[in-house]
Predict the 3D structure of the following.
Amino acid sequence: MNDGLDPENWDEFRATAHRMLDASVDRLETAREGRVWTPFPDSKKAEYAAAVPTKGSSGADVQTALSDLLPYGVGNTHPRFFGWVHGSGSAASMLGEIAAAGMNANLGGRDHGAIYVERQVIDWARQIMGFPEGSSGLIVTGTSMATIVAMKVARDRRLGFGARKSGIGAQNLVGYASTQAHSCMPRAFDMLGLGADAMRKVRCNAACEMDLDALRRMIRQDRAEGYEPFCVVGTAGAVNVGAIDDLTAIADIAATEDLWFHVDGAFGATAVLSDRVRPLLAGMERADSLAFDFHKWLHVNYSAGCVLIRDGEAHRYSFADRPEYLHSAEAGLASGDYWPVDYGPELSRGFLSLKIWTQLKHYGTERLGQAITRNCEQAAYLAEQIRQKPELELLAPVALNIVCYRFCDADGDLDGLNDRIVIEMQESGVAVPSTTRLEGKLAIRVNLTNHRTRNSDLDLLLAETVRLGAEMSRNAPAG
Ligand SMILES: Cc1ncc(COP(=O)(O)O)c(C=O)c1O
């Protein structure tokens, strides 16, 4: 009897692991087929509410349970998943995840191969985004976490790094982002003790981009009232409609007003790899910090985000604080001059960067950029098809990859009708768009960050919207 946790029979484990791998690869290979989203059945919900097992199960039984789980994902691997902003993943990511599982490396720091992979990934990110040498970065779970790291560096640099010990005390820091900015911005302000209200919301112009005159006025007014403006946030790809702020103009204002310039480029920043989108992102490379995801438009499997900080020293001053037992040695495993723990809140960290490395190594930036361009062309195609259908109405300009529309060929409660259309499409498994509200109207929102989508998928989406809209409005109770 083996008293550790290793398999008693490695041949048996190998066969079980191969079956698991085959089931996972089958799932990806058939990602285009079948339903988009499949609700988790009640019987399965009950299974996953069982008490903690005191006795184990065989590897074969566990593998069967895992294989049975595979159909019940979010649906984002399917070509007709258009909800929120989800990447669709890749086979290459899976290779990286397998290798990471075999290594079980802890990426808090020290001197081992995984750290050099992570350093290279951060340096590749720096090159892709046009940041100068000397910038630093950290691989994190997503843009929400990247934003907290970036805003902490910005806050500490403004207050003095002593605030790390003494606390932020009485201060009047305020920052600015557009009304289209993501909720992770006020959340970061909340978590950093500045208060969500200190994240001022600047109104937008008709293109849903930050109104820069309004920004200048708000900065002036805040100063007059005794507040201390310390940062401004440009959004590169706003979640509602895909708008990109004028990043060059915001960089200029930040320089004039002595503000930290942060860019939320959760999905939009990686579109710098697309020849079509790159010009719209001019100015992003001037940011003091940039938060973005690999798991969205670069299709690395969840989760994989990144923060880049122009002033690498400030980044380190804001986080480095190692206790004795973690001090770097001159040689041996505990040496090395890049310890990620010095750049973020986490000590133990998994090897997220390996699947990012695999993705970039396998596809290269050109092919990834072409997939982004294709999605933008599809968004333009979809908008054109909507314009040609009298039953449908386009609700926002299409700047990038997000199309907002609604069925409008009915009287009465169009919001309720369009909401029901979306739920029915999701539940029938045909397509998964999501919804948002634009100028008080409920919109069917189609986000294209999906490398598997084809125009025929978009045709089907619109045909289904028109069919369901007509059927539901016909069957609606009178009055
Ligand atoms: C513009 C924007 N910022 C931030 C986020 C949050 O990113 P994450 O979900 O990776 O934390 C999103 C997510 O969709 C987003 O679209």
